[in-house]
Structures are given as C-alpha cells and as structure tokens.
Amino acid sequence: MRRSVHIVPTLQLLKDVPQQPGPLYQTIELTDKSTYKLRVRTPSQEWWSPQFWSASLQSVVVKGRRKKGQPLIGMLMADSRHSMWDDSSERHLLFRHTEGQKEGMYLLPTAINLVYAVQQGYDFIHFQVPAEKMYRHSAWLKLVALRAMLPKYEYVLYLDSDTYVRPPGTPDLAQMLVRDGTLTAKQDKLIAVTKEDPRFPDVANTGVIMLRNASAALDMLEDWWLAVIRHPERAVLLKAWSFEQGAFTHVVYPQYKKFVSLLQLERYNSPEGEHICHVWSLLTDQERAERFFGAAAKLLQGLREGQEQGDTALAAEQLVKGTQDVLKAKAVGAQKTART
After folding, report:
1. Mean pLDDT of 103-118
2. Quick one: pLDDT at residue 312?
3. Highest taxon of the source (predicted)?
4. Quick one: 318 exposed, middle or buried, by C-beta within 10 A (0-12, 13-18, 19+)?
5. I need a surface site. Which of 38, 111, 223, 312 has the fewest CB within 10 A?
6. Distances (CA, A) of 243 to 37, 136, 229, 278
C-alpha cells in the first residue's frame, strides 16, 4: 500500500522555485514628513534565501484519494512555529494553551483542515517555513509556499495558520470557490480572494487564497513577491502590517485586476465565516484559543457521532476483509490437514 503521509524536507519542496544565486542587496531609504527613515537590506532578485531555510525544516504532505472527475487540488498552510508532524513523546503538549505556551494552539486549525482535506479527496500540505528573523515578515512566506506548490496542482487553496474550514465542512468547498471565483481554465480569472473588512483600507484579505495553475498566475506571484523591491515607496510592508496584503492592494491588484475575483468576506474569510473561519489577530489570544478549541471539539464530536451511527460502507469493507481473512486461514489449515 502506498503511503499517504509524507514527511518532506522543506528544501525539497523548494527545489523548483527560482533562486537567484548570490545575494544582490540594495538599500531603500524612505523619508516622510516627520523625517522618519527606513533602511532595508533586501535581496533584490531572490525568491528565497538559503541561509534562512534550515535543512531541519520538515513539511508534511498528505495525499488525498481523489473523487472521480475531481481536479487535482492542494490545500496549503504555511507556518513558522513548528512542523505539524512531531513524533516525540511530548507531541500532545503542543496543543496546550497557557500563558507561556500558546503557539501549539495553531495546530488545531491545521488538524481541522487536514481532516477536511482527507474527507474531500484533496492533498493537504503543511509547509514549514523559517522561524528566524528574516528581511521580510513571515507573512510573506505564504507566497514562497504558493510558488512551490502551485505547479504541482490544478488549484491550490491557501489558508492562514489561524484559519480553518468551519466544522463539519461544506462539501467540495474548493470546487465552490472555483465556481464562485470563475477560476476554470475557460474563464479569465487566476485568483479568488475575499474583500477586506470595510474598517480597513486594503482591497482584499489574503488569509484565504484560491489560485488556478497557469503561467500568468506564476508571473503574478513573482510580481507580488517583488512588489516592495520594484516600488520602494512600499518597502515598509516588508516588516510592517499589512505586509503582503498591502502589496497586493497597492501593486498587484491594480496590475492584475481583470484576473482577480473578490468574494464575500462573510462567506469565506472572517471569524464568523459561513464556510471558512479566519480568527484574525484583532481577537485576543484567549479568544482565538477558545475559537480553535471549540471548532476542534465540534469536529471530534461529529466524528464520534458518525461512528456511533455507523458508517455502513466502512463496516461492510471491514466485514468483507475479516471474512476473507477467516476463509483464507481455514483454507490454509485444510491444505495442511490434507498433506498430513
């Protein structure tokens, strides 16, 4: 039987991502009315810098069992905190939420999305990115993960680490996003994102991204990554909120507007999202933890109820296998008796 869970060095997933050899640095200086200056040293042509990507970074790829006629879909998350696949005896401690230990709670959205992806026949990728301080905020590294995984799929659905499919999960959610975002190959859209909360200036919230694999989509990702280099007036976004989302608003969206679908925030990307919940950082850590644990508990309750009600297909499969094993054992015993 082929393994469905693969623990992969992140560097292996990056092998096809363009990398400009050698650091090509430039200094950007911004001066505003208060004479505030920002100097940023940035590799001007690099997608990723090897010095930050340790060989110890471990990503997880869970292969889905596709349904007949279903496109090849990857559900992607990227996280700098830790790998979701930890075989240590203290793995369960990652799920604690205390004053001094809160990062583990971000494994709960990961677990919820993993279960959903398996149920829907999608591949699930938990892409571990560097935790070290980089010349960019870690929010930018979702673009590196997307650039690495998009060529391998027809569609990639990216979810931030504080984002999860609302349990028990809307069936065929990725296909719904493709339809609502008009992302089929016969249509001209490349990316579906949701509108941003009207209280904020950005055009979209990039905590949820649906991308169609096309050469123009790869070009868009590259323009997005280099936006703050080609437009020095946006260099502050390398380290300051709203990071890559601000670059999308000010640089990418104006350039690629005809390829972008803007979907409803309330359906796909908010704390009260109908299909996808994004428990964004405006909430306190305690409020976020309560949302994560509540969603995980609801998912587990649903799985238990399903077991109690009985999954007839699974029960039949187990019964047939058990019967075959008994008959096979009896046949072997009969052969031995006949020989004696």
Report:
1. 83
2. 40
3. Eukaryota
4. exposed
5. 312
6. 18, 9, 13, 17
pLDDT at position 93: 44
3-class secondary structure, 52: helix
Amino acid at site 83? S
5-309 CATH choice from 3.40.50.1360, 2.40.50.100, 3.90.550.10, 3.40.1260.10: 3.90.550.10
Q: Which long-range contacts (CB under 8 A, 24 or more apart) does 7-11 make?
A: 7/58, 7/59, 7/60, 7/83, 7/85, 8/58, 8/59, 8/60, 8/61, 9/55, 9/57, 9/58, 9/59, 10/53, 10/57, 10/58, 10/59, 10/127, 10/128, 10/129, 11/53, 11/55, 11/57
Q: Is 245 a residue whose pLDDT tops 50? A: yes
Give tens-digit pLDDT for 51-89: 889 888 989 998 988 888 999 999 999 998 777 665 544
- CA dihedral defined by 134, 40, 204, 113, rounded to 10 degrees? 0
Angle between helices 107-120 and 285-309 (to 10 degrees): 30
What average pLDDT does the structure give for the chain? 81
8 Å CB contact between 193 and 264 = no
Cβ atoms of 170 and 100 closer than 8 Å: no
Query: Alpha-carbon distance 316 to 319, whole Å?
Result: 5
